[in-house]
Amino acid sequence: MAIRKTLAIIGILGAMAVTVAAKAAADSFSDIKTAGKIRVAIDLASPPNGMLDAGLKPVGSDVETAELLARDWGVQLELIQTTGATRIPNLQTNKADVVISTLAVTPERKQVIAFSKPYSGQLSMVAAPASLQIRDWTDLRGKVVTVCRGTTQDTDMTKRATEFGYTIARYDDEGAMVTAAVSGQATIVASSEALIKQIAVKSKGNPFEPKFTIRVFDLAIGVRKNEPELLAALDQWVADNLKNGKLNDIYQRHHGHALPKEVVERK
């Protein structure tokens, strides 16, 4: 009798373990469709990709991209506000289903999350006031370069800091970095082409300008690893909306020029 009870308990525990394992292995795409909602992490301090308008409504190219995704999938959009440094942690802690937030594809990030096909592109650049003579990396020696914490610029500039003899100042969000640049607290910044344009527009007297390109990035939708169904659905969605021109229309409306041809023409 005791043996039968023990076996029964073992059987129950085994079934529970299988259930938990199956749930852990479940793909969130089916959860999204069942819930009728997709949670998308977006940085709203990164114009023109993500920002708040005068009425505090989220706008920008990444916001419109997320809205288009939700509309095409027939689900409600829940926007999860994030910063550059918390985009990937929001995925890892299940606060968001996906990230659409100027998330560049890098080897380091691919070790911890998965990426969809690129839906956009981004120039990463060093910029400074027009009066400052900076042509390449060697001209940064002895200077301070400002970045947003957790971004690809943070990673790239950190790797080269010792070699080229500059120091790094970090801000936790891009809005604070823009304010620092416009106010003169930050003289040299490493950021995206889009953000540098925003600084240039707001700067007066000694406007910022791009000095040199760090590199060109693919921007993709971030997904947790081991979610093949969700990743396949996102890949198909990106391919369809690059082909029909909707993603290009969104990009051009907010950035003032077409998507990089490398993104549109990639097979």
From TrEMBL:
Pfam family, one: SBP_bac_3
Signal peptide segment: 1-24
Keyword Signal: yes
Keyword annotations from UniProtKB, A to Z: Signal
Transmembrane regions listed in the UniProt entry: none
Compartment(s) of residence: Periplasm
The keyword Ribosomal protein appears for this protein: no
SMART domains noted in UniProt: PBPb
All residue ranges annotated as the Solute-binding protein family 3/N-terminal domain in the record: 37-258
Coarse class of the protein's main subcellular location: periplasm
GO cellular component: periplasmic space
Protein name: Amino acid ABC transporter
Phylogenetic lineage: Bacteria, Pseudomonadati, Pseudomonadota, Alphaproteobacteria, Hyphomicrobiales
